[in-house]
Structure formats: structure tokens, C-alpha cells
Write a structure and sequence with these properties.
Blueprint lengths: L5 E5 L4 H12 L4 E6 L11 H4 L9 E2 L2 H5 L4 E4 L3 H14 L2 E4 L6 H10 L4 E4 L5 H16 L5 E8 L9 H14 L3 H4 E2 L14 E7 L5 E9 L2 E9 L3 H13 L6 E3 L1 H5 L2
Parallel strand pairs: 1-2, 1-4, 2-3, 4-5, 5-6, 6-12, 7-9, 8-9
Antiparallel strand pairs: 7-10, 10-11
């Protein structure tokens, strides 16, 4: 067991953190060596197994990420932008693969993550599922085949606890559509419509966000032309697909050269 890559999960008490813990514990390809939470969280100092409702496993939750990362070959991180930037620097210091599923990252965050990637492997993606990454590939191909007379709209739906919009996956899909058309997404983004907005601008890529209930994740890419529409769709019904994809990325990153990678690299798409 000691030869298996050791994994640390950040944000251990959260919905995604708990799913990641269970996924690693169930894997025969990796071992859980640490779990991290912020100072003051009630999970700190407690055994992971007990906090998941089972028997003790000998791994306690800590609020000292560097101490945990020093024992790990990979860190899986679905937390918040400020925390992720801090974890990127610490994971690089520990030379651990850093798998980032955090969304809502801005340009300043990405610059700091890129700096950390000079020293360690970072795999970052707005969505870790195979299906979504195939959808990204299809979106780019369809966008390249259709001219700007076809309106593009990214429609996403998530649970009512999600704090950022558009979702990281929606932005991935918008970026794919923009690349297919050979334009910069920032120049053609159309989101947050409200009131008298005027007619839609030719060539814009629109975003619409729905929040409600316990929706895991639904993404539609709508290409709307005169008299016809093309709709590409992915529906996630189990958050486990993201956890399994993240673990796959953590294992793939072992022995890779330092740098920034994404799930397209991991999946060979």
C-alpha cells in the first residue's frame, strides 16, 4: 500500500470534499494520506473515517496544509479561489501534483497558479468528467463549422448552493465555441441580460444560469440558426463523476514534467 500515490483532499468537510474522500478510500490505485480544512472547522482534529460515519482509518483532518502536503504525491482541491492559490504554492513547494477543480478563478488567481506550475504539475479544469470534456471537443468542432449567423448560447443549471455563475463548465464550453470561431471569448461574451437590452449582437456567445434544488449539473450548448437549431447536452446525475475524474488526473500527473495541464491532456482528447 505504501507504494500507491498518497492523496490529500482539501475542503474535506464540504459536499465535494466528502465525495473525494470516499472516492480515494474506495480506490485500489491510491491511498488517502491527509485531509485539510480551514482553522476552526469542526472536522479539524477528527478522524476522517469517523466524520464520514464509519470506523477510524488513522487519518485526521488538519488545518496545516503544508504538513499534509509534505506526505502526499497529489493534492485534490475543489475549494475557493483564494484558498486554491495558497494551496498551489504549497503543493509546488512539496512537489505534489495539484488537481484543481475550483471555479470562479480570476486572472490574478490564474497568474499565481501559472507561477506555481513552473515547479510542479498542475491539472486544472472547470469540469473533470469524461462526458463534459467530450462535449467541449464537440462544441469547438460545431462552432468551427457554423458561421456567426448561428447564435451560440450556453445554458447551465446547478444546485441552489453554487456561488459562482456562469459555471466553470459553461466557461469551458464558451471558450471552446470561441476557439472554434477563432475569436476571443472576452470580446463576444453576452451574459447577465436584464431589462431592455436591445437586439442580440451577431457573433456573440451568450450565457444563461439556472440555480435551484439539488441539480448536480446540466449544460446545453445551443446553436440557433434560421429555421433550425442544434443542441449539444450533458447531464450529470452523480457528483461522483467529478471525483473519479479528479482522482484519474492525480494519478495521470505522477512523473509528468512540471507545467499546467487540463482534462483534455489527461483523457488524451
Amino acid at each position: 500500500m505504501g507504494e500507491l500515490p498518497g492523496i490529500v483532499i482539501t475542503g474535506a468537510s464540504g459536499r465535494m470534499g466528502q465525495m473525494l474522500l470516499r472516492t480515494v478510500l474506495a480506490s485500489d490505485k491510491a491511498r488517502l494520506v491527509g485531509a485539510v480544512e480551514r482553522k476552526g472547522n469542526p472536522w479539524v482534529g477528527r478522524d476522517v473515517g469517523e466524520m464520514l460515519g464509519g470506523q477510524p482509518i488513522g487519518v485526521s483532518v488538519t488545518d496545516d496544509p503544508l504538513e499534509a502536503f509534505a506526505r502526499a504525491q497529489a493534492v485534490i482541491d475543489f475549494t475557493a479561489p483564494a484558498a486554491t492559490v495558497e494551496f498551489a504554492a504549497l503543493a509546488a513547494q512539496a512537489r505534489a501534483v495539484h488537481v484543481i477543480g475550483t471555479t470562479g478563478l480570476e486572472a490574478a488567481h490564474l497568474a499565481q497558479i501559472s507561477a506555481a506550475a513552473r515547479h510542479a504539475v498542475i491539472v486544472r479544469a472547470g469540469n473533470m468528467s469524461l462526458g463534459v470534456n467530450l462535449l467541449v471537443t464537440l462544441t469547438k468542432k460545431v462552432a468551427a463549422a457554423l458561421d456567426a449567423d448561428w447564435d451560440v448560447e450556453i445554458i447551465e443549471a446547478h444546485h441552489n448552493k453554487k456561488v459562482d455563475a456562469p459555471s466553470g463548465t459553461a466557461l469551458m464550453l464558451g471558450q471552446a465555441a470561441a476557439e472554434g470561431r477563432g475569436v476571443a471569448l472576452a470580446d463576444v461574451t453576452d451574459s447577465g441580460r436584464d431589462g431592455i437590452t436591445g437586439a442580440r449582437k451577431r457573433g456573440d456567445i451568450g450565457f444563461s444560469a439556472i440555480r435551484g434544488g439539488d441539480i448536480v449539473g446540466e449544460h446545453d450548448v445551443l446553436f440557433a440558426g434560421e429555421g433550425e437549431r442544434i443542441i449539444l447536452r450533458h447531464v450529470a446525475t452523480d457528483r461522483g463523476i467529478f471525483a473519479r475524474g479528479a482522482l484519474r488526473a492525480a494519478l495521470w500527473g505522477q512523473d509528468r514534467a512540471p507545467g499546467e495541464y487540463d482534462m483534455m491532456d489527461v483523457l488524451g482528447l
